[in-house]
Write a structure and sequence with these properties.
By secondary structure, the protein is mainly α. The protein has helices at 3-29, 34-53, 59-82, 100-117, 121-145, 156-188; strands at residues 86-87, 150-151. The chain folds into two domains: 1-30; 33-188, no CATH class. α4 packs antiparallel against α5.
Length: 189
């Protein structure tokens, strides 16, 4: 057998062992605990609220905004976990990203609602700063306090800046795409 494949299979066997350790730990110490139920609510409640508040006439634009935020947030989480900036002592499911309720619900839904309700740059700026303060300096300390996240080499101020950059950057991108789309519609229409 080629050395490359031998190494591949050795790594795969170790990954399988780690996964089964994680699965057993999750079943014994995480699943159905009160912390797990908080994660369930963090996953479900924002989407219920969003479903009631979303304006259907801009839904595609809003969903694209949320999808971009989800991708960016998930990628940052992967990097942060890999480089030990933080860790998640409890997970919603052991087979998906540990921060799934945050990356796929709490964060993108908040951004989508901001994008929907604060249509001017000034109002969005103020709302984005308020959301960033709430998430970075209230939400994250709460999540650390209840042991949903553990910050190793990360500070709340970094999250504050991250929330601002993601919000402003994604809004600028979406507005540019909408502008290009309308310009294209005028040419073909």
């Amino acid at each position: 057998m080629d050395d490359k494949f031998k190494d591949f299979w050795e790594i795969r066997l170790l990954e399988d062992k780690i996964y089964f350790l994680e699965l057993n730990g999750w079943l014994k110490h995480e699943f159905l605990t009160w912390e797990w139920w908080i994660l369930v609510s963090f996953l479900v409640v924002p989407w219920v609220i969003w479903g009631k508040l979303v304006k259907r006439e801009n839904i595609l634009e809003i969903i694209i905004f949320g999808a971009i935020v989800t991708i960016i947030t998930t990628l940052l989480d992967i990097v942060g976990l890999q480089y030990h900036f933080w860790d998640y002592p409890i997970s919603f499911l052991p087979i998906i990203p540990r921060a799934f309720p945050f990356d796929f619900s709490m964060v993108p839904v908040a951004y989508m609602l901001l994008y929907q309700y604060f249509r001017t740059w000034n109002s969005f700026l103020i709302a984005q700063i308020i959301m960033s303060i709430i998430y970075a300096f209230l939400g994250e300390p709460f999540c650390e306090w209840v042991h949903l996240v553990y910050y190793i080499k990360w500070k709340y101020i970094y999250s504050f800046v991250y929330y601002l950059i993601v919000g402003f950057g994604t809004r600028a991108l979406i507005l540019k795409l909408v502008s290009l789309s309308k310009h294209q519609d005028l040419r073909t229409g």
